Structures
1.
Amino acid sequence: MSEITTTSPAVEELAAVVARLGELTAQITEAELGAQVEDEQIADVLYAAARLFSAKTDRVGKMAWPVRADALNATETVVLVTALLDAADVNLFDMAIWYRRAE
């Protein structure tokens, strides 16, 4: 017997919003308009992504961040990670301890 799965309307709406966000982000970066994006808008997107990732790992267990190999370059990755560490007042030594703790 096969299991029928349905997607909630909220999850379907999120998929559409994420697709549109990707389109808008590409337009903004290609036009070099990133400086015009409000800090709070960027923060809100990051918070939402982090909360979704955390909520999913709470349900399915530890998993790798679902980032495609071509999604972020090394500079984008380091800039993001550094900003997150600074915001949480976490240094690299502390991060190494937490990283190994999850194993």
Note: The radius of gyration is 17 Å.
2.
Amino acid sequence: MDTEARAVREGVAAFALLVIRGVLLWILIPVGFVLWLVIFGWSARVGLGNFLGWLDLNLTAALQRALGLPTRTTGTLRKEEFVPMRLMQMVTHRIHIVRDPF
């Protein structure tokens, strides 16, 4: 029964992460767009997709740490790592309407 309880907890944690992340993205995307215009809009070094993807990856990592929500990836539990600002240009992640953040 311990494995069943663990599976239920992991399912609830994943659902909570998706709901909280979804609500916060409604705030993060408009604010991130304005920040990108102010900070990087004049520069071709960082594109809007890179910047918003970087914000989303770090939001997911922060939520996992703040709420203590590990996620399942191919049978193992892991936490997302924060992406440093210096690696922002290499971010290939993009925000999608439906995306599995795990």
Note: The CA atoms of residues 8 and 53 lie 29 Å apart.
3.
Amino acid sequence: MSRVLSGYIHRATLGLRGGERREVAAELRTHLLDRVRQLEAEGFEREEAEHLAVKAMGNVKVTNSELLGHFFTTPLGWGVLAALVLGGGGFLLWRTVPLPLLGQLR
């Protein structure tokens, strides 16, 4: 398989675990190779057929996000997660660590 196809499959399945990643990669590989064969039958050279098949699949980041199926695949999602973690940690610190009262400092 070419670097174009294997690269797309690798990037599209990032974040999936073990057996699920192998299964999805096999499905993507089958779909892409079927499309390449169709394009070759229409008269396209192999390299161009692979490029067109990958292009037809769409943006690899979108495909990856759809395969992962959760919010934390976007920069905004990671920002929200960081804000929640830091905010929750700050709240717990504020609730559990006794701070001196301002009147007692003099």
Note: The first helix runs from residue 3 to 12.
